[in-house]
Amino acid sequence: MSKTWRVYLSGEIHSDWRERIEGAVQAAGLPVALSAPVTDHATSDDCGVRILGAEQNPFWHDNKGAKMNAIRTRTLIGDADVVVVRFGEKYKQWNAAFDAGFAAALGKPLIVLHLPEHSHALKEVDAAALAVAEEPEQVAQVLSYVITGELPGSNAT
Amino acid sequence: MSKTWRVYLSGEIHSDWRERIEGAVQAAGLPVALSAPVTDHATSDDCGVRILGAEQNPFWHDNKGAKMNAIRTRTLIGDADVVVVRFGEKYKQWNAAFDAGFAAALGKPLIVLHLPEHSHALKEVDAAALAVAEEPEQVAQVLSYVITGELPGSNAT
Amino acid sequence: MSKTWRVYLSGEIHSDWRERIEGAVQAAGLPVALSAPVTDHATSDDCGVRILGAEQNPFWHDNKGAKMNAIRTRTLIGDADVVVVRFGEKYKQWNAAFDAGFAAALGKPLIVLHLPEHSHALKEVDAAALAVAEEPEQVAQVLSYVITGELPGSNAT
Amino acid sequence: MSKTWRVYLSGEIHSDWRERIEGAVQAAGLPVALSAPVTDHATSDDCGVRILGAEQNPFWHDNKGAKMNAIRTRTLIGDADVVVVRFGEKYKQWNAAFDAGFAAALGKPLIVLHLPEHSHALKEVDAAALAVAEEPEQVAQVLSYVITGELPGSNAT
Amino acid sequence: MSKTWRVYLSGEIHSDWRERIEGAVQAAGLPVALSAPVTDHATSDDCGVRILGAEQNPFWHDNKGAKMNAIRTRTLIGDADVVVVRFGEKYKQWNAAFDAGFAAALGKPLIVLHLPEHSHALKEVDAAALAVAEEPEQVAQVLSYVITGELPGSNAT
Amino acid sequence: MSKTWRVYLSGEIHSDWRERIEGAVQAAGLPVALSAPVTDHATSDDCGVRILGAEQNPFWHDNKGAKMNAIRTRTLIGDADVVVVRFGEKYKQWNAAFDAGFAAALGKPLIVLHLPEHSHALKEVDAAALAVAEEPEQVAQVLSYVITGELPGSNAT
Amino acid sequence: MSKTWRVYLSGEIHSDWRERIEGAVQAAGLPVALSAPVTDHATSDDCGVRILGAEQNPFWHDNKGAKMNAIRTRTLIGDADVVVVRFGEKYKQWNAAFDAGFAAALGKPLIVLHLPEHSHALKEVDAAALAVAEEPEQVAQVLSYVITGELPGSNAT
Amino acid sequence: MSKTWRVYLSGEIHSDWRERIEGAVQAAGLPVALSAPVTDHATSDDCGVRILGAEQNPFWHDNKGAKMNAIRTRTLIGDADVVVVRFGEKYKQWNAAFDAGFAAALGKPLIVLHLPEHSHALKEVDAAALAVAEEPEQVAQVLSYVITGELPGSNAT
Fold first, then answer.
1. Quick one: which of C138, E2, G41, A9 has its CA closest to H6?
2. Cβ neighbours for A106, distance < 8 A, ≥ 6 positions apart
3. N or C, which end of chain H is more exposed by having fewer CB within 10 Å?
């Protein structure tokens, strides 16, 4: 009867932020279906050549893989009710910002997750977001509030 | 087998109009899934700062909360088959009119609910509506007719 | 697992063509969910004033009713996979042609159902259709073929 | 500098209503570009077979012509800021109602022009319109008001 | 060669804010085409009945006028690159908030103009805006910056 | 809970490539709902005249059938998450390329399946694709990877 | 004042059909702006590697070129009022069919040009078209009729 | 008569790449209208607070500016025929990747410009592009080819 909210978790793949959101969402019993890109780095890099054949030129090696991943990511972003994008401390993470722009242009509600030290560099991304959080648990709380209308610590549920 | 109609109830939060529609819809056994914004005033005002951190400037306090609420309201309006907007006797209720305009631009069938004394001030909103009602029970009757094809007082069902 | 096809049956309300399609579709066991406007003439005419209050001017009497019916018809046409529009022998039936135009602009596959004597008058409507039939049973056969890939009289199913 | 309003005039082709609108629009010096379907009946009927080759079956004769006309009508309706549809006293005029539905689904502001005797039969079409007029001069006045903000008989311009 | 920016000025009609924006825009020589609703109150209220015939019921008097005005306002909002909405000190101004919601759903960049005392009541509208100003001259400066890239007081142009 | 991926298999109908994909997808237990055009050549050619009446002119014989098939194909392509298009060794297969263009314009992720000898002739189609495969089993592997995130030969599932 | 019709000429590049349409359109003084893909075969094949660097693998050589050409073709198809696609006697011409599908999905009026011997193979493409011609001069006549409302051989203009 | 191509130049603001493209485009006499974000770093950072009032919290200082810049950037990207995004050697440049994602979701043809050393980090962005260049002059050559159909060094024009 209740709507299941589809939430796509884009971005950084080197910490456990997705698991922390998933744990908090499950603990709260929220009707949320989480999805994400393939988060195994090597698999994600090599999927194209592993399935469709090797490439000598590393550019096309990457290109084949990135396109194959796009079948997954664009479909899931297109399906999502809410898109969460996390920026970690390291790496360029241009794919995270690309996903944020993609989601924004589709009119998807955007939640951005990053440390304060990146606020200036991420100001255009944050400006397109409906919520900017620092910790994964805050994202889970946003989802909980948005879905149930209850704030953390309230006794109402 | 039968379609469940998703109906979003926007606007005034100080009377029991949503409960009256819900009661009438349930009594009639209609396949309707009602949704609404968060209707607890304090919760709705403070959600942003409670989850994402305090703001000294009241403008940003409000801004954080309004954006967080928008994750819920835009998603549910976008999902809705029908949008009902109620204007009460008091307050500016600009968010209700904003939701009406938002729904109209998305091509959502719009039902507006208000007392006759506001008809002139609401003429632009009413002009975008497919039904204008004074009482919540009328809204329930509209939904009943639209879904079942039966008018109130008929013996057919 | 199998897709349920949503088929909207617009137009003429004075013969049993909808029942004939429904009967044939059920006999064939097709996964089809049929929908239609309110087909009781008096109910459809008076719904607006019965629920929302009487109007002295017949124009607004009609207007209130037509808008209320539009909540139903536009939602169901918007949901439909296929729109069938039948033109009968009598009356202007401008609402049928309006629905056909509406469905065409939304890119919905259109099946038109009418007698050959109306072919010239309906040439613009037929030109927007993917099938033009004379009998309701043909419409059911089109749906059967489109969904199952089997032609009537074949032994395959 | 001023916007030129593109206005498409659909429907009845047996009276001089388009000329009356055009005359009034020109007299008022309005920045309006009028367009219309091909209004010569025989030309409109025969265009398909005259250019693309004869058809023995009258259905396909009509079909070829109606599709060729659709290249013009759909393009011009798609370009239009405002769509005017006139229903005359005679004939089925299903193409007029089809155009009205097509324009409505595209979100085009719709002005409908017909005599009061057709109000009941046209109630669904009128319910989708932003103005319903009886005389072509009223349509010109609507355009004048919409574009200049001045009402007929005012001294302001 | 340079793009002309189409800017729609919605909302309050009892002060000279549009003239102040227009004056500042012209003084700066900006390539801006301003548009607005009909701002003469009586004309805007009575346009429907003046052109299309009197109504005894004030609801339909208003309805006719509001729909006629919608031909203008929806077309110009749809054409606009930027939509500015001003809320004044008085009246309900639900049409202003409706326009803001309509523009937001179309993805139009929104600039909201109001005094700080209305910030709380307008928090949902402000949350959908890309700029919130208090004075018309600020709106002109925003337009100037957005178009030329120069800030007020800089020497560069 | 898990999303069912809708995959449309367009193109060549003279080999068992669809069965090979279906077999591999079922063996892997993937949540995939496959759909396809009617693949019986004679049935697909004659459906129009069989149901709606014979045509003397072979052009209209074909036209009736092609439009009836379009009810199926456009609906299923519009529903699809992923569109796979296979080009075989023989025949013009313009309908396959048409479907590829149709899917590309709708923004559907496209997988193209053909032998290397057709790479030059298909370069525009391949350039619109997110994956280009030679064997049906590769398509199944792409689907498996996209849905599960596991590569063939990995032990993770 | 008069609309300039943008017409994109897709498909076969080995005969003078574009020149024949252009000549006829100019002779008739029609307000038509024709556009087309790059029709020099070698240039079109090699553009990618000539500008962006050589590729050893012919697949990527083709891919680079096809994508570069897509910048032109998709932009011009997207801009077009009418899309004409010609199929010649030779070659696979899958890009022509791809363009036809692309244009159809965008709702562009489609004119297809081919010899009768290809009617069966092109039945799906023809079924999506509003006109099917055999000679370029017929296409010019269709454009002339659609724009001016006059048939060839009439004296009216 | 000839189409003017609108090209938006997004991304890196610390080198003269825009000037080099502009110079090459002008030297070639191409009908191109270039646009770009505000490229003066301090102006771009401070625009929000300079016009709309100071903020104590640097997050909101940035937020005000980023939203004001978005009025410009989203409008110009939405208007563009082609979007070019350059990634430089330094900084996070998340706004460049955000713009690339935004443009990709709108279906804009994308040209990406960066050094080979960033190919791996940019593989998702490159995979969404129709051309990937290393030097600004290549971008100008792509535009020249796309618009004129001539390759650099050919004598044809």
1. E2
2. A77, A78, H105
3. N
Strand duo G5-11 + G32-35: pairing: parallel
From residue H17, give the alpha-carbon distance in Å to each of C23, C47, E31, E157: 69, 66, 27, 22
- Closest residue by Cα to residue H76 from H17, H28, H33: H33
Q: What is the pLDDT of residues H85-140, one digit of tens each?
A: 999 988 889 999 999 999 999 999 999 999 999 999 999 999 999 999 999 999 99
Q: What tens digit of pLDDT does each residue of F142-151 get?
A: 999 999 999 9
Nearest CA in chain G to A54: G57
> Given an 8 Å threshold on Cβ–Cβ distance, is H58 in contact with A94?
no
Residue G156 neighbours by CB distance under 10 Å: 9
Q: How far is G38 from chain F (nearest CA, A)?
A: 13
Contacts of H among chains (3+ CB pairs under 8 A)? A, B, E, G
Burial of C72 by CB count in 10 Å (0-12 exposed, 13-18 middle, 19+ buried)? buried
Count CB neighbours of D75 within 10 A: 20
Predicted structure pTM score: 0.97
Q: Is the interface score ipTM higher than 0.90?
A: yes
Phi/psi of residue H156, nearest 5 degrees? -70, -40
**CA–CA min distance F118, chain D (Å):** 35
Annotate G97-157 with DSSP letters as a single string: HHHHHHHHHTT--EEEE--GGGTTTTHHHHHT-SEEESSHHHHHHHHHHHHH---TT----
Check pLDDT > 70 for residue G78.
Answer: yes
Do E84 and E111 contact (CB within 8 A), yes or no? Answer: yes
Q: Assign E48 to helix, strand or coil.
A: helix
Q: Give D20→chain C minimum CA distance, Å.
A: 25
Integer angstrom CA distances of residue B91 from B12, B36, B132, C9, E120? 9, 19, 20, 45, 11
Question: To probe the interface with E, which of H55, H72, H74, H77 has the most E CB atoms within 10 Å?
Answer: H72
How distant is the alpha carbon of residue H54 from its chain centre? 29
